[in-house]
Hints:
Layout: H1 5-13, E1 20-24, E2 29-31, H2 32-48, E3 56-60, H3 65-76, E4 80-83, H4 90-100, E5 104-107, H5 112-121, E6 126-129, H6 137-142, E7 159-166, E8 172-178, H7 179-192, E9 200-203, H8 210-223, E10 226-229, H9 235-241, E11 247-250, H10 252-259, E12 274-277, H11 284-294, E13 299-304, E14 308-312, E15 326-327, E16 332-336, E17 349-354, E18 361-362, H12 366-371, E19 379-387, E20 393-398, E21 403-405, E22 408-410, H13 412-420, E23 425-435, E24 439-448, H14 456-466, E25 475-478, H15 492-498
Parallel strand pairs: 1-10, 3-4, 3-5, 5-6, 9-10, 9-11, 11-12, 12-13, 24-25
Antiparallel strand pairs: 1-2, 7-8, 8-18, 13-14, 14-15, 16-17, 17-19, 19-20, 21-22, 23-24
Bound molecules: adenosine monophosphate.
Adenosine monophosphate binds near residues 300, 304 and 324.
Amino acid sequence: MNQSVFALIADRxxxxxxxxxxxxDGGADWTWADIDATTxxxxxxxxxxxxxxxxxxxxQVEKSPEALLVYLACNRAGLVYLPMNTAYRxxxxxxxxxxxxxxxxxxxxxxxxxxxxxxARNGVSHTLTLDGQGRGTFTARAAQMAADFxxxxxxxxxxxxxxxxxxxxxxxxxxxxxxRNLSSNALALVDYWGxxxxxxxxxxxxxxxxxxxxxxxxxxxxxxxxxxxxxxxDAARVLALLPRATVMMGVPTFYTRLLATPEFxxxxxxxxxxxxxxxxxxxxxxxxxxxxxxxxxxxxxxGMTETGMITSNPLDGERxxxxxxxxxxxxxxxxxxxxxxxxxxxxxGVIQMRGPNVFKGYWGLPExxxxxxxxxxxxxxxxxxxxDARGYVHIVGRAKDLIISGGFNVYPKEIEGVIDRIxxxxxxxVIGIPHPDFxxxxxxxxxxxxxxxxxxxxxxxxxxxxxxxxxVPKHVKFLPELPRNSMGKVQKxxxxxxxxxx
Length: 502
Ligand code: AMP
């Protein structure tokens, strides 16, 4: 039996070809018959370009139903889907193309010229375009293709996607997800969250990240639920569509923004059965304020790119604010100390886990991959937490200094590298500081070279031209030297504690 995600979805949906699965806000409806025909055309086009099983397809496009269909078409053709954050700039794209060596790069029409250069430099044979309305050279050429394509046979361990996560080394690492990684997680979530075909999922997340792409879309497609498709989160549009929705998934920022909208309340939530939050910590205050306003308790879950979803608060039963709930069925979680000794109830250490959802490895980095696993095969998440007496998992911090801004990961090392290269800068340290909208934001502490006069605006302006906006420090302060411990390591805890007073 074909074990690809596409084959499993097709199996479940083929009996109801006329059912609308995607309703684009202000755009077209997509039935299974439409999705089936269109992904066949896309798959044929990619095959005609010479791409075969296991080849990578890199994609940096605005969110649209067509963008999702590119993913499904890749899966249908046995190709490996590699989505890129739309905020990535030249240097980041250059690195990813060089690292993953895709056979095709689909980019936005407005960046076509520069993307073609980057593709040529990295030996990528084909560059096609796709815009937020589903137009571009990719869809124009696919329209000429026949609308049938037999799904390529895949086994459970075949690669399905590579999602890049910025590394602590500053360079992004590609997490390779297999067909089984994705389908096992999808099936577990559909069951755990009670998805059924009468559900209507309000989809306002980006589709280049595991949350919006795999968690949200798979829950809908594996259960035959309809998605109300928004190009991005917009509180006014969410308010307008919510009365027709039964489920919404979001990052905590979505919920704080809804709460900041005075009209938002029970009136819009009549049909809703579930609000899910994840990708960053949901403050207990937000959980409480949301319940007071709507009468509904947000269900918080925890996962990461390398694993998909790991734990979730229960659908029925207490959703405990400040916790991320229980391990999903089929997944085991434990807490380990620095020597990987397993710790007991309420003891704080690194969260380790294993299950069919754990990625195959970082693309081309077998040693780095091996470092992330314990001797007995558990994956070290890098998150610090504990499990309480009732079995709820709590996250108390991050082992690796990661900053999560508006749900996106920001690795200080990468930003420090950019700042340190600015003329007049001796060195820098980047930390996370609380931010009312994004939860956390990057802030930089910079040491100038003797005689240099550059200020906060100069640093921010420079960094903005080099990396994605969400990674750019919101504040920059200056010190004559960075605090260091006896081992010479910069004491970021000291900087965090004193940043306000610097
Ligand atoms: P990503 O790979 O972008 O999905 O980011 C994964 C990281 O996000 C995890 O390792 C956690 O640090 C963090 N994360 C995800 N969900 C939660 C949550 N519910 N609460 C706190 N942190 C979370």
